[in-house]
C-alpha cells in the first residue's frame, strides 16, 4: 500500500505544479483559465523539441520554454483577455476555451499528431523507495512545486508588484485609484502563470514519459479539479489540492480499478464542494465572488421579433426538410439536437445567471433511458421520448440536489463534476447500460407506426420538437416564474431579501433544462442508432454552453442560431481540413471579442 | 368623459389597424415563403436519390481521422489507400473506369461521422465507403449508408456488433473472438498465473471477455484484472497490485501508446522483469517502449518481414519504395480494403449494386494478411471467414513473425 501512496504522491506533485499557475491567474484576474492545460502542453512540446531532436540540456530548455510560454501568456492577455475586462468573467472563460482549442490544434499541426517519448533531460528512474523507482526528475519536480509556491507567496506578500497584484485582485477599482497600473498587473500575473505552466510542462512530460500535443485538455481539467479541492485562488491550496488528488486517485484506483478513475476524480471534487465548498485552503470570503455567473452584460436583451416573424420562421423551419438535400438535412439534424439541448440553458444560465458546464449528463441520461425503454421494454418511441425527458429531469435534479446550496462559481464547477460522474456511473453500471460496449441497433424513431429513417424525416421530427421546446421556454420566460428566474440572475441577494428561495428556483430552472436535454439525448440515440459513454464528454457540455453564449444567453432563438453556427461551421470549414478546428477556435474568440452579447441579442 | 371615450375609441382603432397590419404582413410573408418553397422544387421527405455517376471516375469514400487524437492512425491508413489506388489505376482501374478516393476527416468522432455520412451517401460517384478508425464512429455512419444501398466496408472495425446494422455493412477484420483465442492460447504456453489489464472502451471490453473465456478453458489463472481509461497518465495504482500478485506474465489488451505506458511503468517504475503480452504493431509503440518492448508478443494479421505470400511480399517492397518503411497491420488492412473493393468492382461492375453483389458472391478476394492466398465472406456475419491470426514478437526493436 505504501508504494501506491508514494506513487500517488509523485503524481500529485505533477498536478500541484500545474494547479499553482491556475490558482494564481484565478486569484488575481478572476478568470478560470481553461487554456492553462494547453499552455502546459505547449511547454511540454517545446521542451520535447529542444531536449529531443535538438539534444539541448535542461539548463537551456527551462529558460527557452519559460520565454515561449511567457510570450503565449502575454499575447493571450493583451489580445483576448484584457479587452474583455469589465465584462462578466464568463466571457473570458469561454475565450480561454477557444484559445485552448487554437493552442491544442496548433501544436498538433506544428509537431505532428503522434504520441512520442519525452527526452530524459533529467534521469527519471535512477532512484528507488518502497518498491517504486523514481528519478531525480521527480525530486526536482516536487522541489520546483514547493519553491514556486513559496516564491509566489513571498512575491505576493513582500514584492511591490506582488502587493499590487493582491490589491488588484481584492478591489481593482480601489487599486486603480491608488495609482496601481491594473492592466499591467493583470498582464504580469498572466505571464507568470503561463511561465509556471510551461515549466510544469517540462516536468509533466518527464513524469508521463509518453506525450502527445493533445494532452492539454486532460492536464488542464485535472489541475482545475486539484486547484478547486485546494481552494481556488489559494497558492498553498493548489499544492495541497494537487497532492491530495494524487493520493485519492492512487488509493481509489487501486481499490476499484482504473475504469472508475473519472468517478473517483470528479466524485472527490463533488464531495469536497459539498463538505467544504471553499476548498481545503480557501478563505470563506472567496466563496462569495461569482466569476462564472451572469451573462456577458447584465443589460443585454434578446432581439425581439414581431409575432408574424416568429410564425414565418417556424414555418420556414418546418419547410426546410422538404427541400433540403440529405447532407443539409444531416447537418440540420445535428444542429436541431444541439439547439434543443441548449435552449433550456437560456432559463438557468441566461435568466437565473447560473452557468452549467455539465449538460452532457442529462443528454446521456435521456439517450440511455430512451434506448432502454424502446429496446428492452418495447415502449412506443413518442412515449419514450417524453419519458426520457422526465427521467433526465428527475435524475439530474436528484444528483444536483446538494449543489444548489453552494454559491457562485462553485455551482458551475460542481456541474462539471456531475456531468462526468453521470457518465462514469453509466459506464460502470454494466448490467443495465452495457457499460463501455455501448448500445447498438437502437431503432429509428417510430411515430404512430411510421418509421422515420430518412435524413429529412428525422430532421422534420427534430424541428417539431425544437419548436415545442422554444415555445415552452418562451412561455416560461414570460410567465411569473420566468421573472423570478430573472430577478435571481439580476441580483441574487436582492431576490433573497424578497424571500425568493434562489436555490430552489435555480433547481427548477435546471430541471427544465435537463428535461429538454433528455429530449435531445433521446433523439440522438434513435437517430445515431448507437450510443456509448464516450459520446457524452466534456466537449459536448462545452459545445452546448458555447451555443447559447454565441447566440445570446437571453434569447431562446439565439440557441438555434448558435447551434447553426457551431455545428455548421466545422462542416463549412471542411475544405481546409488541417486547420479546421483551429479556425473554429479562432472564430469563437473573435465572436466573443466583437459581439460579446451574443449574435441574437443587443446591448441594453 | 366623452373625451375619454373617444380616446379609447381612437386607441381601439389604432390597435385594430396595427393588428390588421400584422395579419396582412403575416399573410404576405406566408405567401412569400410559399412562393420560395415552390420555386425550390420541393422533393419531399424521401431523401436524395444519389446523383448518377458522371464521367469516367468512380470513387471510394473514406471516413477517417485526419486530425484529432487518432490522427496517427489516419496517417497510416492514408498511406495504404493511396498506394492501393495508384496500383489499381496502373492496372487499368475498375471496369474501365478510373478509381479515385474522396477523403472525409471525421476525427473518428461519432457526431462528425453522422453529419458527413449523408453527404457521402448522396454523392453518386461514390460506390463504397471505407472506415472509420473506431467502431462507435463507424456505427454512427452505417445506418445512412445502409439506407443508401452503399456498402460500408469497416475494414478496421472488429467490434462484434459492427455488421448488425444491415446487409450493406461488411468488415474483413478478423473478429476479436478469433484474435483473443489465439492470444490466450499463446499466453497459456508460457504462463499459468497471469495479470490482465485492458483498455476501457467497447473494443477492449469485448476483447477481454473473449480472452477470459479462452483463458478459463485453458486453465490459466487470472490473479489480477483491471481496466484503464485511455487518457490515464499514471497506471501504477493498478500495476502495483498486478505486480504484487506475482503473475508469470502480464497481459495488456489495448492500443499502442497505452500499451507502451503499461510496459514502461512495469519495467521502469515497478521493476517487473517477467513476460509481457501486449502492445501494438506501430512505430509509435516501438519508439515509446524502446528497449522495454523487447520480447513483447502480440497477435496480429500481418508481418512485413515474415509473410510468405508472394503478392504480400511485393506489396511490402512497393510500400517501402514509396514511403521508406515497412508497412504494419494498419497500413496493410487499409491497402487491402481498397484492393478488395476494386476486386469486387471488377467482378461485377463499378456501381454500388455491383460492389454489394460481388461481396455476396465472389469467393476469391486476394488476401495479404495471415497466410495469404484468398478469402471469402461469411454471408451470415458479413465478416471474413478464413483469415488466420499470426503471432508477432519484438526482436531487435522490430516486430517479427513468431511461430510460438
UniProtKB/TrEMBL annotation, chain A:
Q: Which Gene3D superfamilies match?
A: ABC transporter involved in vitamin B12 uptake, BtuC (1.10.3470.10)
Name where it's found.
Answer: Cell membrane
The entry's cellular-component GO terms read: plasma membrane
What are the transmembrane regions?
6-26, 33-50, 56-78, 90-111, 131-156, 187-207, 219-251, 263-285, 305-324, 381-404, 410-429, 458-474, 507-524, 544-569, 581-600
| Gene Ontology molecular function, alphabetical | branched-chain amino acid transmembrane transporter activity
Keywords linked to the UniProt accession: Cell membrane, Membrane, Transmembrane, Transmembrane helix
| Coarse class of the protein's main subcellular location | membrane
Give membrane topology per the record: Multi-pass membrane protein
- UniProt KW Membrane keyword: yes
Instruction: Identify the InterPro entries for this entry.
Output: ABC_BtuC-like (IPR037294), ABC_transp_permease (IPR001851), LivM-like (IPR043428)
Q: Which PANTHER family match?
A: HIGH-AFFINITY BRANCHED-CHAIN AMINO ACID TRANSPORT SYSTEM PERMEASE, HIGH-AFFINITY BRANCHED-CHAIN AMINO ACID TRANSPORT SYSTEM PERMEASE PROTEIN LIVM
What's the protein name? ABC transporter permease
Origin organism of this chain? Answer: Galliscardovia ingluviei
Q: Please name the taxonomic classification of the source.
A: Bacteria, Bacillati, Actinomycetota, Actinomycetes, Bifidobacteriales
Amino acid at each position: 500500500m505504501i508504494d501506491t501512496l508514494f506513487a500517488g504522491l509523485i503524481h500529485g506533485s505533477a498536478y500541484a505544479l500545474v494547479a499553482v499557475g491556475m490558482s494564481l491567474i484565478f486569484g488575481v484576474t478572476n478568470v478560470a483559465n481553461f487554456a492553462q492545460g494547453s499552455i502546459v502542453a505547449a511547454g511540454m512540446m517545446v521542451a520535447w523539441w529542444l531536449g529531443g531532436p535538438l539534444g539541448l540540456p535542461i539548463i537551456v530548455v527551462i529558460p527557452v520554454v519559460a520565454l515561449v510560454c511567457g510570450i503565449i501568456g502575454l499575447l493571450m492577455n493583451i489580445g483576448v483577455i484584457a479587452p474583455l475586462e469589465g465584462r462578466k468573467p464568463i466571457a473570458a472563460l469561454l475565450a480561454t476555451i477557444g484559445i485552448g482549442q487554437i493552442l491544442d490544434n496548433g501544436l498538433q499541426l506544428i509537431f505532428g499528431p503522434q504520441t512520442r517519448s519525452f527526452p530524459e533531460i533529467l534521469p527519471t528512474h535512477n532512484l528507488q523507495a518502497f518498491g517504486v523507482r523514481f528519478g531525480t526528475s521527480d525530486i526536482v519536480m516536487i522541489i520546483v512545486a514547493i519553491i514556486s509556491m513559496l516564491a509566489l507567496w513571498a512575491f505576493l506578500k513582500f514584492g511591490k508588484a506582488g502587493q499590487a497584484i493582491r490589491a488588484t485582485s481584492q478591489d481593482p477599482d480601489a487599486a486603480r485609484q491608488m495609482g496601481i497600473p491594473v492592466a499591467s498587473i493583470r498582464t504580469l500575473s498572466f505571464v507568470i502563470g503561463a511561465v509556471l505552466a510551461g515549466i510544469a510542462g517540462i516536468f509533466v512530460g518527464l513524469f508521463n514519459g509518453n506525450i502527445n500535443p493533445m494532452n492539454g485538455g486532460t492536464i488542464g481539467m485535472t489541475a482545475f479539479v486539484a486547484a478547486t479541492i485546494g481552494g481556488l485562488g489559494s497558492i498553498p491550496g493548489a499544492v495541497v489540492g494537487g497532492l491530495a488528488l494524487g493520493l485519492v486517485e492512487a488509493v481509489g484506483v487501486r481499490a476499484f480499478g482504473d475504469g472508475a478513475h473519472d468517478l473517483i476524480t470528479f466524485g472527490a471534487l463533488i464531495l469536497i464542494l459539498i463538505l467544504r465548498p471553499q476548498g481545503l485552503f480557501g478563505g470563506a470570503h472567496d466563496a462569495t465572488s461569482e466569476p462564472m455567473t451572469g451573462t456577458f452584460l447584465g443589460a443585454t436583451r434578446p432581439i425581439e421579433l414581431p409575432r408574424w416573424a416568429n410564425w414565418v420562421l417556424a414555418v420556414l423551419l418546418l419547410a426546410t426538410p422538404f427541400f433540403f438535400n440529405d447532407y443539409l438535412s444531416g447537418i440540420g439534424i445535428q444542429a436541431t439536437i444541439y439547439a434543443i439541448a441548449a435552449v433550456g440553458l437560456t432559463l438557468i444560465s441566461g435568466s437565473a445567471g447560473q452557468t452549467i458546464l455539465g449538460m452532457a449528463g442529462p443528454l446521456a441520461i435521456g439517450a440511455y433511458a430512451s434506448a432502454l425503454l424502446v429496446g428492452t421494454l418495447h415502449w412506443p418511441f413518442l412515449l419514450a421520448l417524453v419519458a426520457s425527458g422526465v427521467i433526465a429531469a428527475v435524475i439530474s435534479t436528484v444528483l444536483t440536489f446538494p449543489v444548489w446550496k453552494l454559491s457562485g462559481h462553485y455551482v458551475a464547477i460542481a456541474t462539471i463534476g456531475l456531468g462526468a460522474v453521470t457518465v462514469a456511473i453509466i459506464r460502470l453500471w454494466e448490467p443495465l447500460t452495457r457499460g463501455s460496449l455501448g448500445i447498438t441497433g437502437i431503432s429509428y424513431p417510430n411515430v404512430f407506426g411510421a418509421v422515420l429513417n430518412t435524413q429529412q424525416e428525422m430532421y422534420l421530427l427534430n424541428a417539431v420538437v425544437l419548436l415545442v421546446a422554444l415555445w415552452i421556454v418562451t412561455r416560461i420566460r414570460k410567465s411569473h416564474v420566468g421573472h423570478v428566474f430573472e430577478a435571481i440572475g439580476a441580483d441574487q441577494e436582492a431576490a433573497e431579501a424578497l424571500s425568493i428561495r434562489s436555490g430552489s428556483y435555480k433547481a427548477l430552472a435546471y430541471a427544465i433544462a435537463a428535461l429538454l436535454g433528455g429530449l435531445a439525448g433521446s433523439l440522438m440515440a434513435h437517430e445515431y442508432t448507437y450510443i456509448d459513454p464516450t459520446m457524452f464528454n466534456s466537449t459536448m457540455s462545452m459545445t452546448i454552453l458555447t451555443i447559447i453564449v454565441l447566440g445570446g444567453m437571453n434569447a431562446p432563438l439565439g440557441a438555434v442560431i448558435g447551434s447553426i453556427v457551431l455545428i455548421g461551421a466545422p462542416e463549412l470549414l471542411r475544405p481546409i481540413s488541417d486547420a479546421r478546428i483551429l479556425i473554429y477556435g479562432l472564430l469563437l474568440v473573435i465572436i466573443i471579442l466583437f459581439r460579446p452579447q451574443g449574435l441574437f441579442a443587443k446591448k441594453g | 368623459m366623452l373625451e375619454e371615450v373617444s380616446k379609447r375609441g381612437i386607441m381601439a382603432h389604432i390597435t385594430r389597424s396595427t393588428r390588421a397590419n400584422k395579419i396582412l404582413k403575416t399573410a404576405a410573408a406566408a405567401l412569400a415563403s410559399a412562393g420560395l418553397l415552390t420555386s425550390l422544387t420541393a422533393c419531399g421527405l424521401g431523401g436524395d436519390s444519389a446523383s448518377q455517376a458522371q464521367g469516367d471516375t468512380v470513387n471510394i469514400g473514406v471516413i477517417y481521422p485526419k486530425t484529432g487524437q487518432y490522427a496517427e492512425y489516419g496517417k497510416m491508413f492514408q498511406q495504404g489507400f493511396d498506394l492501393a489506388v495508384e496500383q489499381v489505376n496502373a492496372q487499368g482501374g475498375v471496369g474501365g473506369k478510373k478509381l479515385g478516393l474522396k477523403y472525409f476527416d471525421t476525427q473518428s468522432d461519432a457526431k462528425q461521422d453522422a453529419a458527413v455520412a449523408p453527404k457521402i451517401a448522396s454523392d453518386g460517384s461514390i460506390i463504397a465507403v471505407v472506415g472509420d478508425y473506431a467502431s462507435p464512429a463507424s456505427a454512427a455512419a452505417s445506418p445512412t449508408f445502409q439506407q443508401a444501398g452503399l456498402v460500408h466496408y469497416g475494414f478496421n472495425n472488429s467490434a462484434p456488433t459492427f455488421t448488425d446494422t444491415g446487409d450493406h455493412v461488411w468488415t474483413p477484420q478478423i473478429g476479436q473472438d478469433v484474435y483473443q483465442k489465439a492470444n490466450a492460447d499463446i499466453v497459456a504456453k508460457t504462463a499459468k498465473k497471469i495479470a490482465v489489464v485492458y483498455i476501457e472502451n467497447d473494443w477492449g471490453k469485448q476483447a477481454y471477455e473473449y480472452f477470459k473465456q479462452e483463458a478459463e478453458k485453458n486453465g490459466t489463472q487470472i490473479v489480477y484484472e483491471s481496466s484503464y481509461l485511455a487518457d490515464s497518465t499514471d497506471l501504477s495504482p493498478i500495476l502495483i497490485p498486478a505486480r504484487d500478485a506475482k503473475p508469470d506474465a502480464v497481459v495488456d489488451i489495448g492500443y499502442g501508446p497505452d500499451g507502451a505506458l503499461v510496459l514502461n511503468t512495469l519495467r521502469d517504475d515497478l521493476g517487473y522483469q517477467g513476460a509481457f503480452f501486449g502492445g501494438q504493431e506501430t512505430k509509435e509503440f516501438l519508439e515509446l517502449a524502446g528497449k522495454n518492448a523487447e520480447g513483447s508478443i502480440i497477435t496480429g494479421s500481418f508481418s512485413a518481414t515474415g509473410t510468405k505470400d508472394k503478392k504480400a511480399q511485393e506489396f511490402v517492397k512497393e510500400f517501402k519504395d514509396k514511403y521508406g518503411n515497412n508497412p504494419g497491420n494498419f497500413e496493410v488492412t487499409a491497402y487491402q480494403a481498397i484492393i478488395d473493393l476494386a476486386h469486387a468492382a471488377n467482378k461485377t461492375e463499378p456501381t454500388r449494386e455491383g460492389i454489394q453483389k460481388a461481396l455476396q458472391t465472389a469467393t476469391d478476394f486476394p488476401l495479404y494478411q495471415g497466410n495469404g492466398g484468398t478469402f471469402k465472406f461469411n454471408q451470415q456475419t458479413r465478416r471474413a471467414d478464413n483469415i488466420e491470426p499470426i503471432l508477432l514478437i519484438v526482436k531487435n526493436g522490430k516486430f517479427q513473425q513468431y511461430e510460438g
